Amino acid sequence: MPLHSTRVSRRHALAGLGAGALGAWWPSLVWAQGDKAVKFILPVSAGSGVDAIVRGAGPALGKALNVAVVVENQPGAGGVVGTQAIVKAAPDGSTLGVVSNNHVIYPSVLRSVPFDPVADITPITIIANSPMVLVVNPKLPAKDMKELVALLKANPGKYNYASSGNGTILHLAAEMFKGVTGTHVTHIPYRGTGPMMADIISGQIEMGVIAMPAVHSHIKSGALRAICVASPKRSSGAPDVPTAAEQGFPAYVVEGWSAAVGLKGLSPDLVKRLHQGFATAFASPEVREAMDKQGNTIVLSTPEQAQAHFKSELAKYAAIVKRAGITPQ
């Protein structure tokens, strides 16, 4: 792509610099000379909540950063494939990533992870929180939490739920539902949100827990029936859908989040510029409207707050995985 050839020419132009000087100055040099594209790797499939957020904000983000924003989905292994591409990218700010809860779940559900989810990235910002919604195929004879729980308890093991992969946040969110309600539903893992959602809509699978940005249009069209949102309050993306707490299950609370990151070692100046770009883009009326329609709550944390969030979430999900009895694979 053009950006690659630009980097190559600069590499030749800067060939006389020592390795130490190149490492220290490379990010600021690239941005100062006005690169025309920044690629955002999403370690999730098209149609996911993170995908909806980034694509909804992409034009405004490109305008704020004065670059073209290229979005590239790299799902696989629950998100490890895409995240590995992020942490191995060139340290010039031309390749960044947007990750979700999955980023801090890997160490608890996988025996071996080819990167450190905290040490090998540079946090830029926690972008937004997204409510999780429990959905079912409309043919399932249950219209609310009590009816669904009664149906599942009367038929233990008969029904299946889909997730975007073993150990993903959608897997853990469904396991938390099972734990809170004392029900038994069989897990069917998929390679991403899009495929799992397609099979719930077609009736191949009965239910699943999905981030609101990915599913709100299907709820609105009637392709999927929303049973509850697993948030402390109702979602703007589907205001008619009651929370689990409203239906007598206050312990069922789980939210998704998205965060912008780069690989470790990004210069403070570049991180500051990127953070300002996100702040500008997500303050724009069109992005705020898009996020509200998707049901997201914009956060825009500082890089320091994002770093602390990663560490606390790492510990939180380790405890959730342990309680759920999920064996690392």
Explain what the structure shows.
It is built from twelve helices and ten strands. It is of the alpha/beta class. The protein folds into two domains: about 200 residues, 3-Layer(aba) Sandwich (D-Maltodextrin-Binding Protein, domain 2), CATH 3.40.190; about 120 residues, Periplasmic binding protein-like II (D-Maltodextrin-Binding Protein, domain 2), CATH 3.40.190.10. The longest helix is centred in the last third of the chain and has 22 residues.
Shape: globular
CATH superfamily of the largest domain: Bordetella uptake gene, domain 1
The largest pleated sheet is described as:
10 strands, mixed
Radius of gyration: 21 Å
Let me know the average pLDDT.
87
Distance between the termini: 37 Å
Question: Approximately how much helix is present in the residues?
Answer: 40-55%
CATH class category label of the largest domain: Alpha Beta
Domain count, please report it.
Answer: 2
Counting DSSP E segments of at least 2 residues, the number of strands comes to: 10
What's the SSE pattern?
HHEHEHEHEHEHEHEHEEHHEH
Please report the number of helical segments. Answer: 12
Strand fraction band?
Answer: 15-25%
CATH arch. level architecture of the largest domain? 3-Layer(aba) Sandwich
| CATH level-3 fold name of the largest domain | D-Maltodextrin-Binding Protein, domain 2
Which structural class matches the secondary elements? alpha/beta
